[in-house]
Design goal:
The chain is mainly beta. The protein has a domain of 262 residues: YVTN repeat-like/Quinoprotein amine dehydrogenase (Methylamine Dehydrogenase, Chain H). The protein is 5% helix and 44% strand. The chain contains two helices and 29 strands. A hairpin with a 5-residue loop joins strand 18 and strand 19. The N terminus is likely disordered.
């Protein structure tokens, strides 16, 4: 029986400078419990897999056509299976309405790598974070050819742009890497002694979710949000949270929202926290009633007044609500919803179906009211979405 193991995903980060809130996505938790159970063994036994005698057939897409450019569309980041090296990128071209599969391999005549985690666009370049390959592929959006491979990372997760010269990259193992965006090289690291995930910039600080030491049970993990001074690149404060703070967004009222899974071992109930980033305190906690229904993929809409997350289906919650939503906006209807993001202009909802983690997936596009618009074929395990500046679908 195949047991899917990923270093989990999410997503692309967008900085809305005019309104000073951000759109940050994070991973779904449907495979997260399994991932942690296998990961301790996987780290010590690499390159072995959690699958028994997996079939690692190289699937070649017969369609060799390419987009004229990759500057106006939507990217779907397909994780691929852990240790199989079959990560890929699907591109939805806004001008032609055509879907292009495996665009990195077609443009570079080599595979993308092992477990594509997220993608961020900076100055006409796409930064593809490849978790289990310990690198970031930097590609030009003109032709999607690789212009640089950034190495020296430690199971990287997500990238946050700090300014025109610098970005932070979270890692599964003990540090946050600092990238020089001029040379596209790792210049130094911020030591955290913990697994770090999502990042949000607020004023002169970056808030980073910190899950705790990777190789410890939830009861011994120090779950918190780290506060980093972007001038000194130093951790200056922290905010205690529930176990496994996996998602982080900033709303229009300058409040942070953190989504906590409760722990891979169901140590405690999952929770959604509203945080005052100025006072650095938790203002309100929403507790989910069922330990087995783990939420994930926290997102926020373009106006910053409504958050979304996965919990089987897609749930929608106004930031001024006093209670958690009781019903899904979009029911899963037997699908395995895995990735989620909200379009930064139209507010349309994009959600992916990972199916059985072995066959190729599907991405769905919905209106803000949850009405289906269309769907697209993707690669294997579509985990996150990234939107170009001009893409309006």
């Amino acid at each position: 029986m195949h047991l899917h193991l990923n270093w989990v995903f999410p997503v692309c980060t967008g900085n809305r400078s005019k309104t000073n809130y951000q759109i940050v996505t994070n991973y779904s938790c449907f495979s997260f419990k399994f991932m942690l159970l296998c990961a301790f063994t996987a780290l010590s036994l690499l390159p072995s897999s959690c699958s028994k005698d997996p079939i690692r057939q190289k699937i070649i897409d017969p369609d060799t056509t390419r987009a004229a450019n990759y500057e106006n569309g939507i990217f779907i980041i397909n994780e691929g299976n852990f240790n199989w090296g079959n990560a890929s990128v699907t591109y939805l071209d806004n001008a032609s309405n055509h879907v292009f599969q495996d665009v990195f391999a077609k443009s570079n005549s080599r595979s993308l790598g092992d477990v594509a985690e997220s993608m961020t666009i900076v100055n006409g370049l796409g930064y593809l974070v490849i978790n289990n390959s310990n690198r970031i592929e930097v590609v030009s959006l003109k032709d999607f050819k690789s212009v640089k491979t950034i190495e020296g990372l430690h199971l990287p997760r997500f990238l946050q742009v700090i300014d025109s010269n610098k970005a932070y990259v979270t890692n599964l193992l003990n540090s946050i890497s600092i990238i020089d965006l001029k040379t596209n090289m790792v210049t130094k690291a911020i030591q955290t002694n913990s697994w770090t995930e999502n990042l949000v910039r607020y004023n002169k600080c970056v808030f980073v979710t910190s899950i705790g030491s990777f190789n410890k049970p939830s009861s011994q993990r120090n779950a918190q949000i780290l506060v980093i001074d972007i001038g000194t690149d130093a951790v200056v404060d922290s905010i205690q949270t529930g176990k496994e703070p996996i998602g982080l967004v900033l709303d229009k009222y300058q409040k942070l929202w953190a989504l906590c899974s409760g722990g891979y071992d169901n140590y405690e109930a999952p929770a959604l926290l509203r945080i005052n980033p100025d006072l650095r305190i938790v203002e309100k906690e929403f507790t989910f009633p069922n330990l087995q229904e783990v939420p994930g993929r926290l997102c926020i809409n373009p106006t910053g007044d409504t958050i979304y997350f996965l919990k089987g289906g897609v749930f929608q919650m106004p930031v001024l609500s006093q209670t958690l939503p009781g019903q899904a906006l979009i029911n899963d209807d037997g699908r395995l919803f895995y990735g989620l993001n909200i379009h930064p202009v139209s507010g349309y909802i994009y959600v992916s179906d990972a199916k059985d983690y072995v066959q190729n997936g599907t991405a769905f596009q919905y209106t803000v009211h949850g009405n289906l618009i269309t769907h697209y074929a993707t690669g294997r395990i579509p985990g996150s979405f990234c939107f170009t500046r001009g893409a309006i679908r």
